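Hey, resending since the last one bounced:
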Amino acid sequence: MGNIVYVGIDTGKETFSACALNMEGTELITPTKYGHGREEYARFLGEAKTVASVTGGRLLFGIESTGIYHLPLYDYLTKRNYQVRVFNGLELCGMRKSRIRKTKTDPIDARLIAGYLLMCFDKDKRSPVPFELRNLREFCRIRERLLRKSTRIKNQLTRDLDLVFPGFTGVFSDILGKKCLMLLEQACTPTELMNMPKEVLRKYVPEKKVVELKKISACAIPASNFNKSIVFEIGSLCRQAKCILEEMLRVEKEIDSEYSQIKTPLQSVPCIGPGTGPVILAEIGDIKNFDHPKRIVGFAGIDPVIKESGKSRKECRISKRGSASLRCALYQAAFAGITCNPVLKVYYNKKRSEGKTHRDAVVCCARKLCYIIYSVLSNNRVFYVPSHIIASNAQMNKQD
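The structure tokens again:
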């Protein structure tokens, strides 16, 4: 294997600390702070290369995932063909707790990361996310952030409408719908809606809802103490919602464009559509990082939490330790799959017959879907339905 120099890096917003160890755990570079930027990166790499040339070893880097702050240095090193292992903070948590002293500084963390890299690098060799998937993953996460913003706006808008126009939200299935937002910008109080002519109101809602809205506005008793401020906020929220919906359309076009350029057999799996497919593919990244489908289950955080003591053994809930985006996409795909994917349909009915609740059975289907995804991606082949599943589905259809 030859000599190896293990370099641990702890990154922050403005600086990063680095420490290098040899294969015996002796410090070759004492924990040192550097700034971010091309010159500082070059200085750091130059010092690391000098140590490696003196010891006759090759450089291996370990860096803790710190949101976005580790990415510039990570890209700088990988573009120069260096191996870089990115650690999840949870991986390092146990080592931090094993120290008697509670002092936590960047230099100490850099030394800890180098030590962890020394212990586990050969046991866990993972490839970085392929470059062609990085933009796709970021676009999917942008969409997710926009969805969270729209949810917050919807909740706040519902609260405000319940104050100034009780009953309004019950008329619409989605208060962030285009027509509903246009109506609220014109009239968001019972008085304003009562004064709006019916022919104008019909531009936004059908006749049935015109009658219903007129009836509600005649009976509504709003909280009038802070009516002016709430009306102002409703207008502001409507404008924000329209902007977010426009941005959602733009980012979805980008996702479709990126996803269409990638040839993947994942698109052949029923229940994995244009909404969930890009997320699943981008979050998993290189399938070679997973040596078993259970690894994907764990990575998504849908593995069960098991508590065992003596003769007692309980599976309480899913761990939720992993990619929340992947977990959500798998659940959505599994939910669709119980009706459109023959394999998941049979598996869902089996779990229900065993006494599982609907929600638990869908989670089981999400785990089953991880096995399907692993098989499809690792073998690079399209999805097919086994003959015994076809027969089982035919039998269920006869019973129905």
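Residues 156 and 166 are 14 Å apart (CA to CA).

Sorry for the duplicate.
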